């Protein structure tokens, strides 16, 4: 994928918060730029009060890191920045350092389409402190949004119970890149196509659509409009029936469907975009069945989300295909995932890794120190529990206790003897070089389906979902507790 080149025509190195650059300068000035560090990217709460989250956006991260280079124009801009007293913000020697800098980090990440949970790292970056620091903002920008939208799409698709969901979000999305990234993430999460033609071209997502009310309104009658559309697209007719009177619209669609049939073509269906969707879809279904069009599909749209779709399913609405825009691509009820990127270890002068912890009044905000891996235990394809542990620790099969990172009274014992295990963090970059082959978007989508299939419906329900067990392996838990107490004592002294 070449999103950076196609969309921005240049470097994205300045797509970061200013404070990342001032810290980078200060790291460089104090001789710490090349000290080795580890940062983890994780979130603290599943979005939409749900029971899971679906990871997406890694391909953008890979592209960002591959192109992580300050170009001449970036450096010229930085060199023009001034302090309040008029002196340059950044010394020339520092800008030369940035000019020569090559991305050299190790990066591990969960693959796109993986079901993930609070506190587990989605990305782990190990490398020179200055580089790791600069990646904080862009990585969060990319992964927070795409992961959020993929999760929303998974929820909407779950509510649709296997029916196709068409993503119609472009006109209401958060700008150009918001729309493109949302179409991509939605497809990964479960939608079957997008109306956004550019997303189709850039990402290889199927593109589909019907027509608008303006088409009908531009003719002197609805019937005439349907006929003209059928002439232009005899293979692809989905007639929008609610411009004037929905029931009459269905009658007109049937009439044009019969004309098409005389020419050996079948109308694909109708779309209803207003009114009581259960009521009108049920009447439309009966009318089309009666008229000999039992295979004609009914598409519904109009401010749909997972909750309205669930309600329409309960009402036994005769809807086959769901067109969803605004509430999907804007993640309407929760506009940000809230993932964070935290330092978790630094290498000391003796070359040993020192775990780092940030102490907080709120236990949910205390990070997990050290360098981690997450293992997912499953049996017969069903996920049982995830354990976050210190990377490198030998995981012999046997009894483990996993401890909730926020509430240590919540513990679960697992015997891993007969369980399958999957290590969720996969190597992506080694010393700045990509060693991961990105699957194409259709494989990512399949991976999402496989992942979602590992989890029970109790974790997927929208109201009070059952909490999937994710915990710290005991020695990691002990390390964290010990460090928190140590830091508190240290601060007190
Ligand atoms: N049977 C139904 N059960 C639950 N929600 C529904 C049902 N039918 C429609 N809705 C939803 O109700 C919301 C508002 O629909 P409503 O009929 O009030 O206005 P509208 O159809 O948008 O009106 P307009 O004609 O201005 O487009 C939409 O989000 C729609 O998806
Ligand atoms: O409702 P969404 O989930 O965002 O789906 C996209 C909406 O966009 C179109 O409406 P349009 O822009 O013509 O506006 P209107 O139908 O609300 O008048 C379409 O008819 C859908 O209603
Ligand atoms: O193709 C459609 O029906 C469509 C596309 C965008 C927005 N609303 C509907």
Automatic annotation (TrEMBL):
<keyword id="KW-0328">Glycosyltransferase</keyword>
<dbReference type="InterPro" id="IPR041619">
    <property type="entry name" value="NAPRTase_C"/>
</dbReference>
<dbReference type="InterPro" id="IPR041525">
    <property type="entry name" value="N/Namide_PRibTrfase"/>
</dbReference>
<dbReference type="InterPro" id="IPR040727">
    <property type="entry name" value="NAPRTase_N"/>
</dbReference>
<dbReference type="Pfam" id="PF17956">
    <property type="entry name" value="NAPRTase_C"/>
</dbReference>
<dbReference type="Pfam" id="PF04095">
    <property type="entry name" value="NAPRTase"/>
</dbReference>
<protein>
    <recommendedName>
        <fullName>Nicotinate phosphoribosyltransferase</fullName>
        <ecNumber>6.3.4.21</ecNumber>
    </recommendedName>
</protein>
<dbReference type="InterPro" id="IPR013785">
    <property type="entry name" value="Aldolase_TIM"/>
</dbReference>
<dbReference type="GO" id="GO:0016757">
    <property type="term" value="F:glycosyltransferase activity"/>
</dbReference>
<keyword id="KW-0597">Phosphoprotein</keyword>
<dbReference type="InterPro" id="IPR006405">
    <property type="entry name" value="Nic_PRibTrfase_pncB"/>
</dbReference>
<dbReference type="InterPro" id="IPR036068">
    <property type="entry name" value="Nicotinate_pribotase-like_C"/>
</dbReference>
<feature type="domain" description="Nicotinate/nicotinamide phosphoribosyltransferase">
    <location>
        <begin position="167"/>
        <end position="348"/>
    </location>
</feature>
<dbReference type="Pfam" id="PF17767">
    <property type="entry name" value="NAPRTase_N"/>
</dbReference>
<keyword id="KW-0662">Pyridine nucleotide biosynthesis</keyword>
<comment type="function">
    <text>Catalyzes the first step in the biosynthesis of NAD from nicotinic acid, the ATP-dependent synthesis of beta-nicotinate D-ribonucleotide from nicotinate and 5-phospho-D-ribose 1-phosphate.</text>
</comment>
<keyword id="KW-0436">Ligase</keyword>
<dbReference type="InterPro" id="IPR007229">
    <property type="entry name" value="Nic_PRibTrfase-Fam"/>
</dbReference>
<dbReference type="GO" id="GO:0004516">
    <property type="term" value="F:nicotinate phosphoribosyltransferase activity"/>
</dbReference>
<keyword id="KW-0808">Transferase</keyword>
<comment type="similarity">
    <text>Belongs to the NAPRTase family.</text>
</comment>
<feature type="domain" description="Nicotinate phosphoribosyltransferase N-terminal">
    <location>
        <begin position="14"/>
        <end position="144"/>
    </location>
</feature>
<feature type="domain" description="Nicotinate phosphoribosyltransferase C-terminal">
    <location>
        <begin position="373"/>
        <end position="479"/>
    </location>
</feature>
<comment type="pathway">
    <text>Cofactor biosynthesis; NAD(+) biosynthesis; nicotinate D-ribonucleotide from nicotinate: step 1/1.</text>
</comment>
